[in-house]
Amino acid sequence: MKIGFIGLGRMGGSMVERLLQGGHEVIAFDRDATAMKAAENRGAVGARSISSLVPALAPPRIVWVMVPAGTITTAVTNEASESMEPGDIIIDGGNSNYRDTLKQAEALKQKGIQMLDAGTSGGVWGLKEGYCLMVGGDKAAYETAEPIFKTLAPEGGYGRMGKNGSGHFVKMVHNGIEYAMLQSYGEGFEILKAKKEFNLDLLQISRLWNRGSVIRSWILELCGLAFSKDPDLSAVKGYVEDSGEGRWTVAEAITENIPAPVITLALLQRFASRQEESFSAKLIAALRNEFGGHAVREK
Fold it and tell me: Is 80 among the domain residues?
């Protein structure tokens, strides 16, 4: 199958490579010349612009957009659609907010263009292991693009979730669960590390727990990989970013009156990780001193 692919970053570049390995023909574009060259070296045909990429495809054209969520995705999608025709398909494989996806899908529908929202999980390991694809959108459009999903995903690793927005919604909740899982592993291993009297080997434990334990997982495999490189994680600063999906999951839980304390606290702990010093903690210490004469650690 011939496909247009816009966005050749860490995931996009590897996805293009996997598509090429699967026998697809890829017309690729990225504003970064180095990323373009790398894709061309793997066998992709480079396009000079988005407007020149679309005409290089045969109807019904399929263009996969893999760029940062938000205004960039909207701008790229709109630009691509200007050169497309009724019956063509745009796939948004990024982490777009499902509400934005609903608006974008409706705008494209007015032009006769179908949109598929493909929540994509797999990270930097996707090239080797395959990508889990959670797809929303028109069933006929999904079936047209299915050979692409089949190549990108491992066996059984893709599916249609429902109408437009459902793919990105499922991926959003997926990432919220990921926040909670990472936080749980982090807390557990910190408790193990703190018990100095046992001098526990965290690498050994991470590998042991992945053999028959009820908490075995791929993330636990990655714990072992991290500990094998740096047992004390001495080269890593405990500063944890978030890309938005955790916030959206918590907001959705509030909207739907769903108690989600673990995901919520995992998100808030990421905020705490970015503070060199907490003003609220300073105020609490000062107040304890004021009302009870409790000692304060001074700078």
Answer: yes
Residue 190 among the catalytic residues: no
Residue 147 in domain:
yes
Burial environment of residue 5 by CB neighbours within 10 A (0 to 12, 13 to 18, 19 or more): buried
If DSSP codes are grouped into helix, strand and coil, which group holds residue 159?
strand
DSSP conformational letter for 87: T
> Are residue 151 and residue 204 in the same domain, yes or no?
no
| Given the residues 109, 171, 290, 298, the one annotated as active site | 171
Q: How many domains does the chain have?
A: 2
Report the predicted TM-score, pTM, of the whole model to 2 decimal places. Answer: 0.94
The answer to whether residue 31 is domain-embedded is: yes
**Each residue's pLDDT tens digit, 142-173:** 999 999 999 999 999 999 999 999 999 999 99
Residues 281 and 287: their CA atoms lie apart, in Å, by: 10
Distance between CA atoms of residues 264 and 275, nearest Å:
18
Task: Answer yes or no: do 90 and 135 share one domain.
Answer: yes
Any domain includes 231: yes
Contact 22, 169 (CB under 8 A): no
Q: Which of 139, 178, 237, 276 is catalytic?
A: 178
By residue range, what is the domain housing residue 241?
A: 171-279
Q: Mark whether 178 is an active-site residue.
A: yes
Question: For tokens 């899982």, what's the residue?
Answer: 181
